[in-house]
Amino acid sequence: MIDFELPKGIQITKQMINGVAKGVMRKFARLADDREHEKMADYVNLMWNASKNMEGISFGGGGKKKDKKDGAPKEKKVGTANIQMAVIIEELSYGDAGLYLATPNPGLGGAAVSAVGTDVQKERFLKRFSEGTPKWGAMAITEPGAGSDSAAITTTAVLDEKTKEWIINGEKIFVTSGKSAVEDSEGFVVVWATRDRKAGRAGIKSFVVDHHTPGMKVTKVEHKLGIRASDTASIVFEDCRIPYDHVLGDPEVRTGGFKGAMATFDATRPLVAASALGIGRASLEFVKEEFQKAGIPIRYGIAPNKLTARERDVMMMEAQLQAARLLTWKAAWMADAGLPNNLEASMCKAKAGLAVTLVTQKAVELMGPLGYSKRELLEKWVRDAKINDIFEGTGQINMLIVARRILEYGSKELK
Amino acid sequence: MISFELSDDQKMIQDTARDFAANELRAKSRDCDEKDEIPESVFQGAWELGLVNAPIPEAYGGAGMARSALTGAIMCEELAYGDLSMAMGTLAPALLAYPVMEFGTEEQKKAYLTKFAEASFLKATAAVVEPIMDFDPAALTCTAQKKGSGYTLSGKKCLVPLGASAELYLIYAALEKPGYENVAGFIVEKGAKGLTVVGRERNMGLKALETAELSLENVEVPASARLGGDAGCNFARIMDYSRVALASMAVGVAKASYDYARQYAKERVAFGEPIAQRQAIAFMLAEMAIEIDATRCLVWEAAWKLDKGQDATKESYLAKMYADQMVMKACDWGVQILGGHGYIREHPVELWFRNARGFAVFEGMATV
């Protein structure tokens, strides 16, 4: 049955996070943007304690809830984990997208471990997020010469037959929370590396590298247009040795293995879309509140040719955001229902990236000098929003994926 | 609990509508557009499938299926995918039946709903739009003045589906003041004194559909003709239903254009390969696919709110506004992807383009 109502539990969670977003995140938003990379300790500790104490809420896919009644995870027909995550991330990003990304959590690295790790690996790498001091997880895919074309990565993983260790060599860039994960806390980074460059995609595997592993070094933390609270690191690996069982999934070079790695994106793209929605909603809400204060009505239902330009702008912003939100929920719902959602994940990501870019920029335009000034957060939201049309696959890459899917083309037919 | 899954009933109705749209509507679409008419067999076929009359309550001789805006939206999309003129034509009787079902007095229900349970297609319709540049459903220029115990209707209407041949009209007019809350509907039978069919309209699109301009000169109706009696009707809500219907039809038309252009682009070879293998074309199709699905979601949400009995003015209004723009772009691109071939009448994309242009103008011409 088609239904657009969030389950009660998720509604309550949403409300709670909204309190944090408004009460805590907004307070630190400007400061965190000004003091790039500086950790907002109050926020970090609050979120760490909250996520530690609340089972079922985690911010990156780690620490999956298990129903242990029968000793085994209970198979439910349709879960709610992905929808819940989308709602939480929208809410946090409504507070502040930079701080959301800087939240101590297993992150995309954690998501990879949850998705393909063995039970032993999950225990070893994810348990740390429920104890001790704040920690971060990270995922390292992009390289100076390989961005969206992740099959072209050059970082290598060579097996030392004697010690049964992997030796990682290469350079990774644009690692979200990279420094937080491997230098500032006892976290880890999941690194994509090739076992055999001649094998192309089939040779690419992911490896968990623990914090402070010798041979791994953070060489740079980027200065960015937006999401400045979040550290974006370059990490160099020089003969970095890690244990054999830190490889995620099947270690053998086989065709089809890469598809598994790419499947992670089907889960994460709707979450990036959800983050975009939160920023867009913040901008839209600001505009609507200012209009209300100024006595400018938004008249739904009147003859469309009688709308003012401002009304039309606000309504289109609203429709764009809601359209993107529903596509995002659809992709998340499909993941929850166990349906393949590769197409829908890219659709919502492409749509949300575009919509939030449009909405945040329109908000600056509509608010005039108020929009451009650093006194308010509108200008920051434009800067923060832009990343959503870039990371986890640019808007163009996602359009390419959608195009290939709907045309039933592979990468050969549609380059 | 969020879900995008159709119920079994909805799937069944979707399949029925889809088959009918393919075998009857699409198959006859071009011919009907050229001839400016819809064959009686199409009206009768839709009637027999129960597309309009299934929700008529059992008490009035109907099948008594619960009315659902969501199910209606799913059906409207499928029918419009086949052909918009025929979708609007075959569903036109709902424009009178459903408001009577929702707001009508017992007497009105008995008098009219029973007619919809009969075996042959009943040409009934509603008149909302007026032939003026700044038409506004909340400030109708067609007026209803209280006279004695009844009302006198005056004014002009246009874009009335089946307007020239209808047996029954539901005519919306403003009582003393402007505003949705002061709009009343009046059930007027064909041939009423003062009601003149000015003529069948010739429009850019919707050519197969008979739409007419009506003139009302002091049409006197009894108080019992007022929809809902003295209590009246909720015209704002009637418009919400209409927006959902029209927006879902826009999704259907857009999808027709998209599917056709996609297939064409995969077959049309230029420079040694299908044009779909070029990003310039492939990305247009990708955007169409995304926007069609996005709009469908907006429409479904609005319909879902209506079904829950909640206020859905904002949702239905935004969905229609979004759909109006989306369908025009999708149909423009359909023509564009076919290039010169899109411009000639051998292919249907130009027909959809002409029909799509109307959505921003259509108001109150369909319901769910």
Beta-strand level of the residues of chain A, as a percent range? 5-15%
Portion of residues within helices of chain B: 40-55%
Strand order of the largest sheet of chain A: 1-4-5-8
Radius of gyration of chain A: 22 Å
Distance between the termini of chain B: 24 Å
The fourth-level CATH homologous superfamily of the largest domain in chain A is: Butyryl-CoA Dehydrogenase, subunit A, domain 3
- Gyration radius of chain B, in Å: 20 Å
How many domains of chain A? The number is 3
| Relative helix content of chain A | 40-55%
Global mean pLDDT of chain B: 97
Order of helices and strands of chain A: HHHHHEEEHEEEEEHHHHHH
CATH superfamily of the largest domain in chain B: Butyryl-CoA Dehydrogenase, subunit A, domain 3
Distance between the termini of chain A: 39 Å
Helix and strand topology:
The complex is a heterodimer of chains A (415) and B (368).
Chain A: H1 8-34, H2 41-53, H3 81-101, H4 107-116, H5 119-126, E1 137-140, E2 156-160, E3 165-176, H6 178-184, E4 188-194, E5 204-210, E6 216-221, E7 232-243, E8 247-248, H7 257-293, H8 309-336, H9 342-367, H10 369-372, H11 378-386, H12 395-407
Parallel strand pairs in A: 1-4
Antiparallel strand pairs in A: 2-3, 3-7, 4-5, 5-8, 6-7
Helix pairs in contact in A: 1-3, 3-7, 3-8, 7-8, 7-9, 7-11, 8-9, 9-11, 9-12
Chain B: H1 8-35, H2 40-49, H3 69-82, H4 84-91, H5 94-103, H6 106-116, E1 124-127, E2 143-147, E3 150-161, E4 168-174, E5 183-189, E6 195-200, E7 211-221, H7 235-267, E8 269-270, E9 273-274, H8 279-307, H9 313-338, H10 340-343, H11 349-356
Helix pairs in contact in B: 1-2, 1-3, 2-4, 3-4, 3-7, 3-8, 7-8, 7-9, 7-11, 8-9, 9-11
